[in-house]
Amino acid sequence: MQQTIPKQADRTVDGIYAQLAQILELEELTAEVVLADCEYWDSLTVLSIIAMLDASFGVHLTASELRSMRSAGDLAAAVEQRRPR
Questions:
Q1: What pTM was estimated for this model as a whole?
Q2: What residue ranges do the domains of the chain occupy?
């Protein structure tokens, strides 16, 4: 299932992907990347992503919420929905 993200959210999505790529030590990250398939996907990575989302986007997710998201696109869509306006 592909997520549709509004155009005005493009900068937010690009920022999420850039920071996720850095945390996951990937050169490139797209919406289709399955988070659990990443080499560095572990509990410390989950905590790092939670901290990054809180600090950079004001979005609060629990570890279980984050783990339930299949792809980077799912995560970006959730951040965009929960992001304070």
A1: 0.84
A2: 31-85
